[in-house]
Amino acid sequence: MLPDMRDLLDRQLLYVTGKGGVGKTTVALAAALAAAQRGRRTILAEVGGQQRIPRIFGRTGAAPGEEVKLRDGLWTVSIDPVLGLEHFVAQQLRSRPLTQILTRSNVFKTFVDAAPGARELVTIGAIWDLVQERRWHKGLPSYDLVVVDAPASGHGVAMLRTPKTFGDIARVGPLAQQAYRIAEWLQDGRRAGYLAVALAQEMPVAETIELERTLRTTLGRPLEAVLVNQILPRRFNAAEQEEVAALPGDEPRVHGVRRIVASHAERVRVQQAQLSKLRRGTDASVGTLPFIIRPALELDDIEGLSPRVQATIG
Amino acid sequence: MELGDRLAGKRVVIVAGSGGVGKTTTSAALAMGLAARGQRVAVVTIDPAKRLATSLGLEVLDNEPRLVDPSRFAGHGVEMQGELWAMMLDAKRTFDDLIERLSPDAKTRDEVLSNRIYQELSGAVAGSQEFTAIAKLYELDREGGFDVLVLDTPPSRNALDFLDAPDRLTGFLEGRALRVFLTPGGLAAKVMGRGTSVVFGVLGRVTGVDLLNDLSTFFRALGGLLDGFRERARGVKKLLADPATTFLIVTSPEREPVEEAIFFRGKLREARMPFGGLIVNRVHTLPEGMQAGGADEIADELADALGAKLAGKVAATVRDAELLADRDAAAIARLGREVDDPDPVVIPELDDDVHDVDGLALVHAHLTRSIDGAA
């Protein structure tokens, strides 16, 4: 039995979700870096065929499903549902010829491609498998923590629901047993934790609050932390804003300066209002990350954010 | 070319792009603009932010388009000559409606709707949004009550889930994967030279025999609907490739959405589906007349008037604005090359979120370039 752990990084699953485009990958990686640094064997799992993490580390050519070492204590994998299903079935049947019949017949691929929810079920199953002492596929290593760069909120929560749904469909038998074990794992506060990433804007804030409610109703679990990304520095107080607004001159440059500062101040005001709204609307611990101006964040940037992420979830 | 001209004669406008780039807002603004010009337009959204929904009067989620009260536009600079209808998609409801429509008789309908597996799958399962969105679109198009349909596609990391959703789902409902094993003398028996009972036994060891029996019942019940589903999938495919259908790709200037936009454009090309244009949202630009690289000079110039400290902060803010404008200009240049829309619609980053009719009117003005892009 695991001790009662409060820290999200000390569990087996850290599930990072949030509205599209808010920086889930950044936060997931920053959290994984922090966990690895603390000595936990950590694997960062991407889903839906995504392979952004190896690219951030300058790696290419990893096969789907391949567990790639990034540095000491840190691995990454892009979950391959078909491979996961093969491993699961092979372990159930304990018979190579029978497994081969199924593999060759392409039934795994057909099933994962076609059955609604099958892809999600097998994906979350393969995520669960990563932290099991005895993996489905004999010989694969076991990890202490899996950080999931999960799909956007709606899909992300739907994926968490699939084990229970399929368990209820199958009711009895090995598939049902396996599905229920995963469902229990997802609902166990000592082993699984949920983190959302948001922006300080109307829609992401509303969606985060909705996500918290959905997690409670579907899994009985709280949303434990929210990282609000891309927060602008509060540079100007009211007097300073007025001072800049009162700058004399009609030339385009002065006009431009006035506009840029006014626009910055307005965006800060909207962000801070949304941040307060989020803080009022959630029981989760809320942390912020600064806005970094880049086409996409580099590894150095994300390492810089890692302590701030840790401070919110630790 | 102006967006309105590009959309002339289009009956179905599908707004695609990765999550968080402003698809819903763009869809709503576009639909509003088309309606303002006198057309009867329905916008089908998946999950609009509550305030936006409220501003359009969409408190009820009942899976049918509702007329947005024209008085909502009064006083917001929108002269509504046509009609704007809007609806929020209810995935389960759409699924149930479809079963009802395709069932040959009431008995089949009840058998499917009350089937345990159907209920679990249609209600709770991820991925059904893609299918139901497209099913609803097809339905609305067939009913023919609107001049234009604007579909805000579901947030999906992989926009393609949406394009092939009908095929995948029909494939599943046909039970191809399982039928192969379950039909006596079916493919499994032929290819593998083994009896169905052997294969059934193998599967049963994994899934439990109960599940297999339930699945058999499920697929038997669905059997009567299969022709309808196949026909539906064909119809949807035809609709997606129709000259009166067009895809708009929406993105923000950030790297990942840009990559996804380029990827999706390639897929449209491969699938020979019509592309109507690119919309780049949340673009940072410098105010007119500002030159990039002037931040340090500005700090010096303003030091007297504002003091060194405040002037320094102003300069830092101007420098950020320059960096962002550079970043976004580079993204737009890359998009123009890769997406082959030399003249994408650029919508500037707005200071506040868009969640009311004024905001929609502003976005629409940018969409149609009836106001200066630097505003």
UniProtKB/TrEMBL annotation, chain B:
<dbReference type="InterPro" id="IPR016300">
    <property type="entry name" value="ATPase_ArsA/GET3"/>
</dbReference>
<dbReference type="Pfam" id="PF02374">
    <property type="entry name" value="ArsA_ATPase"/>
</dbReference>
<dbReference type="InterPro" id="IPR025723">
    <property type="entry name" value="ArsA/GET3_ATPase-like"/>
</dbReference>
<dbReference type="InterPro" id="IPR027417">
    <property type="entry name" value="P-loop_NTPase"/>
</dbReference>
<protein>
    <submittedName>
        <fullName>ArsA family ATPase</fullName>
    </submittedName>
</protein>
<feature type="domain" description="ArsA/GET3 Anion-transporting ATPase-like">
    <location>
        <begin position="11"/>
        <end position="290"/>
    </location>
</feature>
